[in-house]
Specification:
The structure holds two protein chains of two kinds. Chain A is mainly beta. Chain A is 7% helix and 49% strand. Chain A is built from ten helices and 58 strands. In chain A, helix 6 packs antiparallel against helix 7. Chain A is globular and about 110 Å long. By secondary structure, chain B is mainly alpha-helical. In chain B, helix 3 packs antiparallel against helix 5 and helix 4 packs across helix 5. Classes of the chains: A mainly beta, B mainly alpha.
């Protein structure tokens, strides 16, 4: 913790002389000596360190320790004065022995004197030279926040939070100031109570891999006091080779050193899909199927369509209203020497798709104790247990798409009970075959993720001298994860192998030790110095074991008895990652006007090549508090005006351990009559492998006026990341196709603006509005030896084609494909021969009116890959959030809007459901009713590319412009009303609230939700909607009370 | 002041700093490194067997991820399609196209996966060759393993040179990106590539054992090396090396094999069909085969070498991606056991019990019960390929957990190679005996003494009857220089989409894969591509 000494300001001098006088007066009397102990906290109950505690009229005194505690020996009846920069002084009459109640200091100016938790210590916001954003518990108190990422969305500048899925427990993508790495990691570093969180690893199933989660997993949002987002190099360079993607610093709640409080919060929400898609019913399906058959020259299989009475609404049968119950109970309090915060949380979240839910229970205990005048110890213990049943196990491998897409496109003429191998096709003349029932697929399978996540964190602070402090922190984070996936032969995944099951365990162990010395001194009241010197050791260890089986004979026992399986396979691995670091930071402030911050970190990390393991990460920042200048003295109203600038170098080291080493793999080969173990080289060594390096410049201005009723911040930044860690193409003659190497560079530049105004600030009525907007442009500067563009394609069922392109000099995340310029009409044909160019992958026989008409971009008379072009981009031009808090007496209304502008979404879901492709390779697909009503027919020769005619064959395997949609949106994310009831006996702060989430969204996007990323966090796969689990519109009622 | 409480700080610093260097040095727990493998003969043997594994499709996973399998499918496509008797598959079309219609380009995936896989074999072989003497001190022991590796390396290069022409010659192990001379090395000439192949095979024939005990069945022998060397000579006698004096070298080398066939445990086994049976693998007929595991205990197991089994002809119901023309079926004499076995024009579909009969008029198998064409009726297909095993899999076993070995070289091929070399060197009577041995084993009539030219045609014809689908057809056509005739004899009905191109000299070699050209600026493209 940073320490401030009193006497820095003129009024301090005055007191000093007064103290001297008093001292001499009172020294003449022999007074009774007493010992007083206690704690000093700020208004929001965080302990205040380095508060000067002096005896009125005496030179003696002490300062509070890191936890705000102090002990002082004084004459009985003397007056203690508590003072700290930025706070109003407080006085206390010392007239009884022992502890006294806690002292609360009220800040002179709440925003300016925010304490910012930076790396390895805190800093007063006044002395910051860096760009940071802060979100406090108050900001999301009324919001429905299941995970920490939801608390961050739209509430801070420079941070983009995108839900990948609306599934309970799903990961969100968090990006601070854009993406720095093409194929490495873009995840920010998460620091919780001073401990760097390890990368989250979850047990994987051999069938579908692991589900992505970010490092915020396992933190109960109710336990969070505040979140700092450190964005520029001046703030993040202290994290060295892990700071490049920005740092999210989370501080959990601590107990007040006062009497105990019991707090209880209970919320219940229910929701449903905001924009359901309506599919064709049985009759409509049959009608279109007849049309399809007629085009193929076959007789119409359905005679009288109107007599059909089968119409299974598969989507309705696989979905349900969501139900979420969330209850938290916390007990906190303390004595002058100790404090405690103990909380428990239970969350049960039943998702939209049947078979998907999350149950989480967590416990946290934050305990702190002042051992003596110079030693304070704090322990933070957190345990989270979470069981998640995954609704969408598949991300689209063969043969099926994600569960939701299957539910939408399954033929409505099948019966709800149909399933299995020998099902008669509902199409007359159709054969007997395999039919996978989407409802049974959801109910019969099991795909359970179980996690036990624990954090143990011990912080020791030794106050060696008033100016010198030593901190020793010990952390251990352990994540025990299991994945239990079982697919009986009644579902697709298990059908081919007569059932299959995976039971796997992945455990992550993290050890974290850091220690630092911090020295604070003010010389001659003008020169304020602060030095921090420390070292850190982090070890991450992963151990994994997977049992994968198939051909299960005791299917009823599922994964609980895999030994009955015909085929069994075991996989295991273990890996270590070690980082050792030293760091130094020096801050200097002259008269509070001119501020210089410098820092450097030395990191040595095991995953890099032998002679490339260590490096330095320096940063420098300057700031000018204009308001402290003499010429501003006459200017009233402005309480803060600051210019900031910083430059520094940070790194990213997201590669797997052992990547620089030549390694051998193993497998089996049959020799004689038995399988034998064989070994072979599988990676080359790379003795140059090092981290990605990001250089960042930041300039900003902070401005507060009219008693902070108006504040704003504006930042500009420019980043360039070089030596990107990515696979480098090798000639196969090397024995390898790729090697992990450093090459290529990316730049990000952007502007961030945040604004807050207390429009009405009265006792009964308050109205505060906060707005933030961030713009970031992410450019691929060069691809190293790969000079030309690089096409991106996804495996799985995404048409099997190319969807994206990377071109040096252009933005990252561009969709690439064919332009569709209309639908073909009868007039485009001479007989059955088309007189327009069509894709060479199609066949002449398939061309007919109602087809998509491709643009022959290079006008060479054929449609081939050379006719593709950039169709859109997944990155937004800007993102914004707008919060309004209105309080009228006991009623508070919170209105929170968020949005994104200028990004596209690749709507693969919509393409599958509205492309008119009703049968492909014998698989029958239902289509939307919207398509049905507007589709091209000879009677309705529409030219709208959204509504092609019934297809008999896939027109092209590549992405086209009908799939690229405007993904901009403006959303009323939350609308919350809360009402405070009068105290009732022991019950205080009784509050009732009602919240609507995703109340409305204004967007042109035609799918469920424009905020989507079906393929997770990878930079090159953003903005793709492939059977994504939609987010819901939900309503919550809740109650909170304290005792 | 309270200096003693600095102690924990000092303690932490003291414990962290000295441990630095040592701690940060990585020792992988779950993967091996050259320094741990090549310390004993056991490790050397495991690395040597690892070379063989590179010839097989590793896994076919349960959710149908089968990336690896294309390497094998395309090696088949590149060596067996693009001639007058090949068609696209019976069930699917994707795998054999565009090679059936000569529509490949440098960017076509097949060429690049095959190039890559063959160099994977080279790389694994080089690891053994470079490290054998570290693993065992006795040179005579090390030499046997090196010989085994060199055989594999030679066979990889023999495939590469016939597919693509001269290729970069990688002679030692590459372990680091620093070895840029080898990693980015240029192509050698065709002659130098053959020279390298011959050196390896000559070393192998000297150092390898004559035969292997049953528990080592599948590992190469001196007999296999000699037989391979003979085939290399025969190939060099033809195009593009075109050195007729190599016919005599082929005769001499192959006679070393036939003269000591008993020593090398080679023979024509009596029952042609049983060669391909899973219950009769590594019989005396087999000179070289890459082996597939026959095991019920694998979850993600290796697959039938390619999608070559005819759909529904065996209980596993595989897909047939390779077809032959009806004309090819008619080439066989009716008594020839190879006829309906190789090209089954009628069979019982095991899934439904229906009889499927090939109809040459519509180019489809017709379901006798329903009268409807089986499989995708939009596309004209050929007769399915039937050599792969129809043995029932063990009950309860997964369809993909059992697989035939991939037979690369059979003793009947050795005899036909020798017959061809003898005929070209003017010793037609000996050649006639050899071809008749192969024919009579199959139940076909014997030929009597005919002119050298007639016999040449008969031998060439016999190679196709005997060896179709076994990875030699395209190479034979190229060395004979008959591709132009093949294309002339083709009909648009045996390919899917588009037209047949006219013959062009560039078609005698496949293009160097574009991805390799991109990765290595020192590579040059074959003429015409």
């Amino acid at each position: 913790m940073r320490k401030k000494l009193s006497g820095r300001f003129p009024e301090g001098k005055r007191y000093f002389f007064s103290f001297l006088l008093f001292f001499f007066n009172f020294a003449l009397f022999a007074q009774q000596q007493i010992t007083v102990t206690g704690t000093v906290t700020s208004e929001n109950n965080t302990p205040l360190a380095s508060v000067s505690v002096k005896v009125k009229g005496s030179a003696g005194g002490t300062t509070t320790n890191v936890d705000g505690g102090y002990t002082i020996h004084v004459n009985k009846g003397s007056t203690l004065i508590f003072s700290s920069v930025g706070y109003e002084d407080q006085q206390l009459k010392a007239d009884k022995v022992g502890t006294v109640a806690g002292i609360t200091l009220v800040s002179k100016n709440s925003t300016l004197n925010d304490v910012i938790v930076v790396g390895y210590g805190t800093q007063n916001k006044r002395n910051l030279t860096s760009a940071t954003s802060k979100v406090t518990a108050k900001d999301f108190k009324n919001a429905i926040v299941n995970t920490v990422d939801q608390a961050l969305q739209g509430r801070a500048t420079g941070i983009q939070v995108t839900s990948t899925s609306g599934e309970p427990g799903a990961n969100a993508i968090i990006r601070i100031r854009g993406n720095n790495s093409l194929s490495g990691d873009n995840e920010p570093l998460y620091v919780i109570d001073g401990v760097i969180m390890p990368a989250y690893r979850e047990a994987a199933s051999l069938i579908y891999g692991a589900f992505a989660q970010n490092g915020l997993y396992g933190i109960n949002p109710n336990d969070i006091e505040n979140i700092e987002v450190l964005k520029d190099a001046s703030a993040t360079a202290i994290f060295g080779s892990r700071g490049a993607n920005g740092v999210v610093v989370i501080t959990t709640k601590a107990g007040k050193r006062t009497e105990g409080t019991i707090e209880f919060v209970n919320r219940i929400s229910s929701g449903s899909i905001a924009h359901p898609l309506k599919m064709m019913n049985g009759k409509q399906f049959a009608e279109v199927y007849n049309e399809y058959s007629a085009y193929g020259g076959n007789p119409k299989p359905f005679g009288n369509v109107d007599t059909l009475n089968t119409n299974t609404n598969w989507f309705e049968k696989t979905t349900r209203p969501t139900l979420r119950e969330d209850a938290s109970l916390s007990v906190s309090g303390g004595t002058p020497k100790s404090s405690y915060y103990i909380s428990g949380n239970y969350l049960k979240d039943k998702g939209l798709l049947i078979g998907s839910d999350v149950v989480r229970s967590s416990i946290r205990a934050n305990l702190s104790n002042v051992i003596n005048a110079w030693y304070t110890v704090t322990a933070q213990l957190s345990f989270v247990h979470q069981n998640s049943n995954r609704g969408i196990s598949s991300n689209g491998g063969w043969p099926n798409g994600p569960g939701l897409l299957e539910a939408l496109r399954t033929n409505p003429l099948y019966h709800l009970t149909d399933n299995g191998l020998k099902v008669q096709s509902p199409i007359p003349g159709g054969g007997i075959g395999w039919f996978g029932n989407p409802v049974i697929a959801q109910t019969d399978k099991q795909d359970l993720s179980k996690n036990d996540y624990s954090i143990i964190n011990i912080q020791n602070v030794f106050q060696i001298t008033p100016a010198l402090k030593l901190a020793v922190n010990l952390g251990r984070i352990q994540n025990l994860t299991r994945r239990q996936a079982f697919f009986p032969n009644t579902v697709n995944e298990g059908f081919y192998s007569n059932g299959r099951g995976d039971n796997s365990v992945t455990n992550t162990y993290n050890y974290n030790v850091n220690t630092y010395l911090q020295y604070d001194k003010t010389i001659n009241t003008d020169h304020s110095l602060n030095f921090t010197l420390g070292a850190e050791y982090i070890k991450d260890q992963v151990e994994s074991l997977t049992g994968s089986t198939s051909g299960l004979y005791l299917a009823s026992l599922g994964v609980n008895n895999l030994s009955s399986a015909a085929a069994q396979q075991t996989l295991s691995y273990k890996e270590d990652r070690i980082i050792e670091s030293g760091f130094f930071r020096a801050n200097y402030s002259f008269k509070g006007k001119y501020i210089l911050n410098t820092s450097v970190r030395l990191d040595a990390a095991s995953p890099f090549a032998e002679n490339k393991k260590s490096g330095y990460f320096p940063a420098v920042g300057v700031a000018w508090n204009i308001n402290e200048e003499r010429f501003m003295k006459g200017v009233t109203g402005i309480s803060n005006a600051k210019l900031r600038a910083s430059y520094g170098i940070t790194g990213s080291q997201a590669i797997a351990p052992y990547s620089s080493l030549a390694r051998y793999g193993n497998d089996y080969y049959q020799v004689g009559s038995s399988a034998q173990i064989v070994v072979f080289p599988f990676t080359l060594g790379n003795s140059n492998l090092s981290w990605e390096q990001t250089k960042q410049f930041n300039a900003g201005v902070d401005f507060n006026a009219w008693e902070n009723r108006l504040t704003f911040s504006l930042d500009y930044y420019k980043k360039r990341t070089e030596g990107l860690l990515q696979p480098r193409l090798l000639p196969s003659q090397s024995g390898n196709s790729f090697i992990t190497d450093n090459y290529g560079s990316i730049s990000n530049r952007g502007v961030e603006f945040s604004f807050q105004a207390d429009i009405i600030r009265q006792t009964d009525v308050r109205f505060t509005t906060r707005f933030n907007i961030s713009k970031n442009k992410n450019i691929l500067v060069d691809l190293g030896s790969r000079k030309s563009s690089s096409l991106q394609s996804l495996s799985g069922n995404l048409q099997g084609g190319t969807y994206g392109i990377l071109t040096p000099g252009e933005e990252i995340g561009q969709f690439y494909g064919f332009k569709i310029i209309g639908l073909t009409q009868s007039s485009d044909f001479t007989g059955s021969v088309p007189n327009y160019p069509f894709p060479i992958t199609g066949q002449v026989a398939d061309q007919r009116p109602g087809n998509l008409r491709y643009q022959d971009l290079n006008k060479d008379g054929v449609i081939n890959n050379d006719d593709r072009t950039v169709l859109g981009k997944s990155s937004p031009d800007f993102i914004y959030g707008w919060t309004n808090d209105i309080t009228w007496k006991k009623l508070t209304v919170n209105v929170f809007f968020t949005g994104s502008q200028g990004n596209n979404v690749l709507n693969v879901t919509g393409h599958y459901l509205g492309n008119g492709l009703i049968s492909n390779d014998g698989i029958i697909f239902n289509q939307t009713e919207d398509w049905y009503k507007n589709r091209w027919t000879s009677a309705n020769p529409t030219t709208n590319v959204r509504y092609p005619g019934t297809q008999t064959n896939r027109a092209s395997t590549d992405i086209n412009s009908t799939m690229v949609e405007d993904g901009s949106f403006f959303r009323l994310k939350q609308l919350s009303f809360s009402y405070s009831l009068p105290n009732f006996r022991a019950i205080k702060n009784l509050r009732l609230f009602v919240t609507g989430t995703n109340v409305f969204t204004i967007t042109k996007y035609r799918g469920f939700d424009p905020e989507v990323s079906s393929f997770g966090v990878g930079l090159l796969q953003q903005g793709i909607d492939y059977g994504a689990y939609p987010s819901q519109r939900s309503y919550t009622i809740g109650l909170s009370a304290s005792f | 002041m309270r200096i003693k409480i600095l102690l924990p700080f000092i303690f932490v610093l003291v414990t962290i700093i000295p441990s630095c260097k040592k701690d940060l040095k990585e020792k992988p727990y779950s993967t091996l490194s050259p320094s741990t493998i090549f310390t004993s003969e056991t490790g050397l043997k495991q690395a040597t067997l690892g070379i063989y594994q590179s010839w097989t499709a590793t896994y076919f996973t349960q959710d149908h991820r089968y990336d690896n399998i294309f390497d094998i499918v395309y090696r088949f496509a590149l060596s067996e399609t693009g001639h007058q008797y090949a068609t696209a598959g019976v069930y699917g079309t994707a795998f054999m196209d565009p090679y059936t219609s000569f529509a490949e380009t440098p960017a076509t995936i097949g060429g690049s996966v095959v190039w890559k896989r063959l160099f994977l074999t080279v790389s694994r072989a080089n690891a053994v060759i470079s490290n054998a003497n570290k693993a065992v001190t006795d040179n005579s022991v090390a030499d046997v393993y090196k010989a085994e590796a060199q055989f594999n390396r030679a066979y990889a290069y023999f495939n590469l040179v016939r597919l693509f022409g001269g290729v970069p010659l990688i002679k030692t192990e590459i372990t680091s990106l620093a070895q840029s001379d080898a990693i980015f090395g240029p192509r050698a000439s065709i002659e130098d590539t053959y020279k390298f192949i011959i050196e390896d095979l000559e070393f192998a024939e000297q150092k390898l054992p004559d035969a292997r005990p049953a528990e080592d069945a599948g590992r190469v022998t001196a007999g296999a090396a000699k037989a391979m060397l003979g085939k290399v000579y025969l190939t060099m006698a033809g195009k593009p090396v075109s050195k007729p004096e190599y016919f005599q070298k082929a005769v001499d080398k192959l006679k070393e094999v036939t003269a000591a066939a008993a020593t090398y445990k080679f023979s024509l086994i009596g029952d042609f069909k049983s060669i391909f049976s899973t219950s009769n693998e590594m019989s005396q007929e087999v000179v070289l085969a890459f082996r597939y595991i026959w095991s019920s205990s694998l979850v993600d197991a290796n697959l039938v070498p390619f999608f070559a089994g005819l759909d529904g002809i065996d209980p596993s119901g595989t897909q047939c991606s390779f077809g032959m023309t009806y004309k090819f079926y008619q080439l066989f004499e009716n008594n020839d056991v190879r006829k309906d076995f190789t090209a089954p024009t009628r069979y019982k579909y095991l899934g439904t019990g229906d009889s499927l009969i090939y109809d040459p008029a519509t180019y489809h198998y017709i379901n006798q019960r329903t009268g409807i064409g089986a499989f995708n009726t939009n596309i004209k297909y050929g007769v399915g390929y039937g050599k792969y095993s129809r043995d029932a899999r063990p009950s309860g076993g997964l369809p993909w957990a059992y697989s035939d070995d991939l037979i690369e070289y059979r003793y009947s091929d050795v005899l036909l190679c020798l017959a061809e070399a003898l005929n070209e060197t003017g010793v037609s009577s000996e050649a006639l005996d050899l071809i008749n041995m192969v024919r009579s084993r199959a139940g076909a009539s014997s030929y009597s003494l005919i002119s050298q030219d007639d016999l040449r045609n008969k031998i060439r014809n016999e190679r196709r009857l005997e060896l179709i689908g076994e990875g030699t057809t395209v190479f034979d056509i190229r060395r004979w220089g008959t591709l132009q005739n093949e294309i002339a004899a083709m009909s648009p009905n045996q390919i899917i989409n588009g037209a047949l191109p006219p013959y062009s000299a560039k078609l005698e070699l496949y293009p160097v894969p574009q991805i390799e050209m991109d990765a290595n600026p020192n590579l040059t493209q074959n003429p015409g591509w």
